[in-house]
Amino acid sequence: MDPDENLASDDEGRMATFLSMPLRGHGGQVIGVLALSSAAKNAFSETALGTLRLVEDPAAIVIDNARLAVAHTR
């Protein structure tokens, strides 16, 4: 069961399973999206969703810090 509706499917069949997680930077703004897709139906389990949730915050920190570093060098 996916209570947050993060598991979805494409009606046209190009992408049978899509799993995504917004990456939020400092201040809560969305700075990117971590996404997985598959042509196979039900390709991702709750375990895959749990894994995305585990890497969501660290990935957002890395992206946010890289953006700050680039902005600082300009």
Q: How does this model look, in words?
A:
The chain has 74 residues and is of the alpha+beta class. The chain has one domain. The protein has one helix and three strands. The protein has a three-stranded antiparallel beta sheet, with helices on one face. A hairpin with an 8-residue loop joins strand 1 and strand 2.
Q: What attributes does this structure have?
A:
74 residues; alpha+beta; 3-stranded antiparallel beta sheet; 1 helix; elongated
SSE layout and pairings?
Blueprint: E1 7-8, E2 17-24, E3 30-38, H1 46-73
Antiparallel strand pairs: 1-2, 2-3
Helix content: 25-40%
The low-confidence runs, each spanning 5 or more residues with pLDDT under 50, are: none
Beta fraction: 25-35%
Strand order of the largest sheet: 1-2-3
Shape annotation: elongated
Counting DSSP H or I runs of 4 or more residues, the number of helices is: 1
Measured between the Cα atoms of the first and last residue, the distance is 46 Å
| Number of structurally distinct domains | 1
Largest sheet, in brief, is: 3 strands, antiparallel
Question: What's the number of extended β-strand segments?
Answer: 3
Q: What is the structural class?
A: alpha+beta
Provide the succession of SSEs: EEEH
Gyration radius over CA: 15 Å
Mean pLDDT: 83
